[in-house]
UniProtKB/TrEMBL annotation:
The keyword Coiled coil applies. This is Cilia- and flagella-associated protein 58. Keywords: Cell projection, Cilium, Coiled coil, Flagellum. Residues 64-91 form a coiled coil. The lineage of its organism: Eukaryota, Metazoa, Ecdysozoa, Arthropoda, Hexapoda. Pfam families: CFAP58_CC. GO terms for cellular component: cytoskeleton. InterPro entries: CFAP58_CC. PANTHER family: CILIA AND FLAGELLA-ASSOCIATED PROTEIN 58 (PTHR32083:SF0), CILIA AND FLAGELLA-ASSOCIATED PROTEIN 58-RELATED (PTHR32083). Residues 9-88 form the Cilia- and flagella-associated protein 58 central coiled coil domain.
């Protein structure tokens, strides 16, 4: 009986140790279960953050592509504006050349008008008429040349007058264009 009591005591001791061990395992399981739940929550939050980051990244890519297209359009516009600037600069240079040409042409025109006016006045009011008569008697060849020059001057004057009468202001402006 003693043996039986001892065995019973050993069994009860083993049972208590087992109960203790089971209790420790249950506590460990509960602790691990809590850790697992926290880890699952953290994982869920991490997955949510990953989705948010992915959505944000996709929006960023879309925004980046849009800005890239805008940049390309701006580069094209800058290129176009530079070409336009170059054309305008050439046009300005051309305009300066045309203005100087107009100036010189107007100056030449004024000179020619003055010459015509002088020739007209000389024809209307000839100077030294008697000198030519003296020349006729002394040097007939020279006198003949002077008469031809006078005749040619008269023709030039009449042709210039006809030319100025035919040139209307509209035809002059067309020639400038």
């Amino acid at each position: 009986m003693n043996n039986l009591n001892k065995m019973m005591g050993d069994i009860e001791e083993k049972k208590r140790n087992m109960d203790k061990y089971i209790h420790q395992l249950l506590n460990e399981r509960n602790i691990l279960g809590g850790k697992l739940m926290r880890s699952e929550k953290v994982l869920a939050l991490t997955n949510d953050k990953a989705r948010i980051y992915e959505v944000t990244l996709n929006k960023g890519k879309i925004w980046y592509n849009r800005k890239l297209k805008e940049l390309q359009l701006l580069k094209l516009e800058v290129k176009h504006l530079r070409q336009e600037k170059s054309l305008m600069k050439k046009s300005m240079d051309n305009t300066a050349n045309i203005r100087s040409e107009i100036f010189y042409l107007q100056r030449d025109l004024c000179r020619e008008k003055v010459k015509c006016r002088i020739l007209e006045e000389e024809l209307q009011n000839p100077l030294n008429v008697h000198r030519w008569r003296k020349l006729e008697a002394t040097d007939p060849d020279r006198y003949e040349l002077i008469q031809k020059v006078s005749l040619l001057q008269k023709r030039i004057v009449t042709q210039n007058q006809k030319h100025y009468q035919n040139d209307s202001p509209s035809s002059v402006s067309r020639q400038r264009n």
